[in-house]
Amino acid sequence: MIETPYLLFLGDAPDQLAAKVAIGIKDWRPENAVGQYRMDGCKADLGLTDMSLTEAKEAGAKTLVIGVANRGGVISQEWKKVLVMALEEGFDLASGLHNLLRDEPDLVAVAEATGRKLHDVRVPEVDYPIANGIKRKGKRCLGVGTDCSVGKMYTAMAMDAEMRKRGMKSTFRATGQTGILITGDGVPLDAVIADFMAGSIEWLTPDNDDDHWDLIEGQGSLFHVSFSGVTMALIHGGQPDALILCHEPTREHMRGLPTYQLPSLETLRDTALALAKVANPDCQVVGISVNTQHMSDEDATAYLAKLEADMGLPATDPFRFGAGKLVDALAAM
Amino acid sequence: MIETPYLLFLGDAPDQLAAKVAIGIKDWRPENAVGQYRMDGCKADLGLTDMSLTEAKEAGAKTLVIGVANRGGVISQEWKKVLVMALEEGFDLASGLHNLLRDEPDLVAVAEATGRKLHDVRVPEVDYPIANGIKRKGKRCLGVGTDCSVGKMYTAMAMDAEMRKRGMKSTFRATGQTGILITGDGVPLDAVIADFMAGSIEWLTPDNDDDHWDLIEGQGSLFHVSFSGVTMALIHGGQPDALILCHEPTREHMRGLPTYQLPSLETLRDTALALAKVANPDCQVVGISVNTQHMSDEDATAYLAKLEADMGLPATDPFRFGAGKLVDALAAM
């Protein structure tokens, strides 16, 4: 659990895209983003107040979050000067970088001396249990994709935001490093040891109010041979009541697997639902989330209308047209 | 990779059952078992020659394998005396115990001083790749179960033995600690990090001769919510050409999950085959392996005959009736 709110470290980002994680935090949890810290030459700008460490501390920031990708896979000396100062000012540090904060002896030494925490969100910080399969109270929704990276996190985030707006009880449950940094909490599922994957998702989505929805961030795809085991653990550990099918219609093959075709949405529906019913016999497929970013307005609208007619399910692109239809489907259950 | 042959350490085993791992080594790889080492009060006996460390060394043993479960989850001082002597005599140590050899500072210190290796087969020793899904040469067979612990390892071992007897090219591929200790090699899949599960199985079953069969040890079950992700990774990383359905007909519920029923063999067949075809469109279900240990001879025979008639597949209990029918099915492909 990362202490919020954050000061967002943009470092010497070469462009706006490099600050993707910081942008996600600002878009989805603006209340977590007190300000931004930019070094000389930084080409990213979130439109937040530029703050020194002292100013951010006074404004209540608890954690400096590295919201930018680093160059060349190393934490540079220029960055380190700021990170060390931040620890000495009383900030914890949080990072989703491949090269871990905990592998930098100087940062570890200063963190120990100052009593601050280093959060590497790619690495589990909890000893998860083995899943017990016992039915939990409250409701859970999971996005399952025809492929990896088709918008599953975005879909869950957008549904969570819409549900809060409507006064429904909901919690976004992060299962990847971006989601964990955005919300300050979650399970880095791709780094969990095999035997504990499903148990980590049970831990992440415990008993709750009968009318509360956990919106679980999906990962991988049952049809992506590199990561299908992770998806399977989400389906059985998550015990979903509702599945959202997630799809990107213009993709020509499975991500990173040039000889593998995407399954049809019908095949995804039938495969995922049958497996989900092992853990929750009442599970239903309730809607379709389509990433239409590579389609014209006209094509996207026509595609979604045809999908709705063909499959008898509400279909939308939550980024383009809002998550309302998907939330309506949950509300109707 | 553990150096063979072994001296099998039976310690102060309270009964024969406690030496299960040693029995597996002696049954399946007698050529790996030079002798047994028993301490005072040992109640297990494999019928191998009792040897001192020096005698075993002279007989060519390279590794002392802890073939017995320890009491109370700690490696006792009595055991340690022998283990330290073994390191000093030039043996590596190998263990599948939950408490790791590497967590014992005295064993680590002696191993470093003597240049010997400590193999904890529950812990991966390789940095596995992420699965790439590329089709590999040679053939692969995987056992998939209606539940955990229904005889998947035994089935693969028995088929491998039968195939060697017939002069067919085959390799048993261990994915659990017992199998790894028996053969000296394998992947401890339940301890692999999620993102690398399928890749570890690709690594375990590389390109091979066109007429060579890898007999991959199955794990878990697609229908066991605690471990289904592990099974999924085996199906997609293993790219099987042939699936063997494994079943124990008298079980009343899924192992450790009292409210979960076992699926039918038809459901297992259809679910596993559809998922396996994602990685290998030519995959076939070729036979059924039934653990009939809780059935009379008459009941077992009748049950298997009915299964064969109902499902149109060869069905046998490889422990009771041999693995011949299953190997016939592979040979006919």
Question: Could you characterize what this model shows?
Answer:
Two copies of one chain form a homodimer. Chain A has 333 residues and is α/β, with parallel strands linked by helices. Chain A has two domains: 115 residues, 3-Layer(aba) Sandwich (Rossmann fold); 194 residues, Rossmann fold (3-Layer(aba) Sandwich), CATH 3.40.50.300. In chain A, helix 3 runs parallel beside helix 4. In chain A, the strands form two sheets. The first copy, chain A, has a six-stranded parallel beta sheet, with helices on both faces. Chain A is globular and about 60 Å long. Chains A and B meet through helix 7, helix 8 and helix 9 of A and helix 7, helix 8 and helix 9 of B. Chains A, B: It comes from Ruegeria profundi.
Radius of gyration of chain A: 20 Å
The coarse silhouette of chain A is globular
What is the largest interface, and how many residues per chain?
A-B, 41 and 39 residues
Oligomer status: homodimer
Helix residue percentage of chain A: 25-40%
Number of domains of chain A: 2
CATH class of the largest domain in chain A equals: Alpha Beta
Protein name (chains A, B): EBNA-1 nuclear protein
Pfam families (chains A, B): DUF1611, DUF1611_N
Organism (chains A, B): Ruegeria profundi
InterPro entries (chains A, B): DgcN-like (IPR011669), DgcN-like_C (IPR035086), DgcN-like_N (IPR035402), P-loop_NTPase (IPR027417)
